[in-house]
Amino acid sequence: MSNVQGDDDELFIIEDTADISGDPRLIRSWKVAIVDDDEDVHSTTCFALQYVQILNRPLEFIHTYSKDETRRVFAAESDIAVVLLDVVMETEHAGLELVSFIRDELGWADTRIILRTGQPGYAPEEEAIRDYDINDYKTKNELTRKKLLTSLTAAIRSYEQIRTIDASRRGLHQIITSSAAFTFDHGIQAFASGVITQIAALCGVPPEGLLCAQGELNEMDEEATPEIFNVIASAGHYSQLMNCPIEKIDDTKIRHALRHVLTRREPLFGPYSMTLYFSGRGDRPLAAYVDLPFPLSDINRDLLEVFCANLGVCLDNLSLVNQLKNHAYRDQLLKLPNRLKFIDQISAALEQHQPAQMVALLDIDDFAEINDVLGHHYGDLLLKAVADRLREQLGEGVFFARISGDVFGLLGDQDLLDPDTLRQLFSLPFTIEATAHSVSMSIGMVALEGYHGDGAEPLKDASIALKRTKIQQRGSCTLFTRSMGIEIRERATLMQHLHKAFDAERLFLMYQPQVDLETGHFTGLEALIRWRTDEGVLIPPNDFIPLAEYSGLIISLGAWVLRTACFMMVRLQKAGIAPQRMGVNVSVIQFRQDDFIDIVEKALKDSGLAPSNLELEITESVTMSSAAMFETQLSKLKNLGVNIAIDDFGTGFSSLSYLDKLPVDRLKIDRAFVNQIDTPEGPRIAELITQLGKKLGLQVIAEGVEHAIHWKTLEAMGCHEGQGFFIGRPMLEENLVEWIHTKGNSMRPQ
């Protein structure tokens, strides 16, 4: 029986023993701590385990003889695999107290603790295992060489497995974390670092590898084929190779292995290293070189290949995200950074506090017409020519991007972005399809001094300056000023308040009477919208109507005005004091709505007002903006029986031949021409309009009648009706009723 046991001992030792003379990297050991106050226990334990290897590693012993000494030594140690711990040393519970120290204070959850005692009564086995985090409990008498080796091997195997699982968990966590960072520049590096950790954990080796990937394509030349492979993540004694081209790696074996795998796209296994290929579908091959302390088994190779294939899917996802990022930050037509990237670049300049920086926006004048007349292909060629000239003339000192269709953004030193210099860039024509094409550019600029944080703010202000250029003097340059910003912010604030006022019913209508200039009879009303703020301030219509048109609120606002005026007219009719008609102004925005005619019909139907009692006033500019559409809409309104008046006549540039065809009833002379009556210019234009109206068979009404001389002069020239302060100011409903009763029957100037 003893012979069998001896053979078993011998077989056990042979199984875990290997030749370590081949490679110095193989000489790594398991740290085993012997904690006992009996020096003989230390000696016999070392003698019993001399020359023993477990899992291809020798043992390294750490000796301590008391609780206090153990606390000091362990505080400076790490990676102790197994502690052989005596229960009773200077006190009967010293060993158990050290268990708490190891687990709770040092936090060594992986370390295996084998409790040894020569006096079992001091720490009964069941209670010790129940109350303390130990992994085995032995009496010193039963720990023969074989049982000691068996217990130690089991403990080291457990320690190694726990450490491998923990390393795997950390590697997977890093990969998962990096997946959330794929949209950032360091996403691929974080992914690669996680791969190194994971591979090393799976193989049970320290992460001494490095990763390589194909270089990025040249953004300006998609046909270019990159030949340089760079290290994108590294660890251990290879950490100094980060970002190094693999052709510059001194170790020939590593260099050749990486080149082989990256070009042939297949893994390569050696006795003491492996180079793995990650088989994604993208055009960025990725390889990992890892040191090995021993050759891999066939099973481990198969598992690693499956692992690499799975990571290849992650690599595909990373490639897809990079493509999406490329599309998100790069204009695909001109291969330039786009608006988002331009904002990021401005933000970076602000963060770095770069001095004397300027943002300029360049807009090609009349580009929409170029597209319409010459075609989009021609327009694209012109855009590319402009981009090429900007790139060649401005150089790398200026960052430039395509902000929108024909708008380019420039960011750089203000000396480089001088307005005269920029305009000079376009003094020579471009050659497009063998044709010389001259280009005019409108420019908006803003200096970055005084801005902080997000680059969107200065870009917005540069856009304001550009818009000012386009409105006031195309082909010139406007530098953004603080006063522009104040004006825009005030407009924005006013727009917000206008929306709130409409929702809160802070808008109301006033009504201004119209009279027959010959008889003085009350003939009509014009509904005029007013806005009084919560503070009681009246906002002029000229200030908020354009905002309502710009924001689209005019659609809802106009429908409300129309309905309110119709219902008001019906109330006057029921009271027996209504004039012939109620005039309501209509915006061009309303007129272009597909359902505008339906809105008018519904207002008439709901209020019960006859169409002949409603007059829609449309400005002269509206009639010329979309002639065909306007004529169609007017015909539909006339078919309903609604009256049509051309408001502010004479301020636009109407075609008389076109005006003759329109189904309108009345011309309104603008107040500016009425005010000229008592000036040296006299009533010339008002008289011309009156005569024109008569020739066309139209009624003529004059606005701005503020003096008796206005009335008498207009009456004398044959103008039919008048409206103005001399007749009556705009009034609320209750004031209007009083005016009708006192002045509405007949009023004539003395």
Task: Provide a short characterization of the protein structure.
It contains 26 helices and 29 strands. By secondary structure, the chain is an alpha/beta fold.
Task: Write up what this structure looks like.
With 750 residues, the chain is α/β, with parallel strands linked by helices. The chain has an eight-stranded mixed β-barrel with strand order 21-22-24-25-26-27-28-29, surrounded by six helices. The chain is elongated and about 135 Å long. The model is unreliable at 1-26, 178-186 and 216-226 (pLDDT under 50).
**In terms of per-residue confidence, which ranges show pLDDT below 50 for 5 or more consecutive residues?**
1-26, 178-186, 216-226
Number of strands: 29
Number of helices: 26
Largest sheet: 8 strands, mixed, barrel
Given the helix and strand composition, which structural class is it?
alpha/beta
β-strand amount: 15-25%
Q: Kindly state the percentage of residues in helix.
A: 40-55%
Global Rg:
45 Å
* Overall outline: elongated
- In round numbers, the mean pLDDT is 82
Q: Tell me the span between the first and last alpha carbons.
A: 146 Å
Strand arrangement in the largest pleated sheet? 21-22-24-25-26-27-28-29
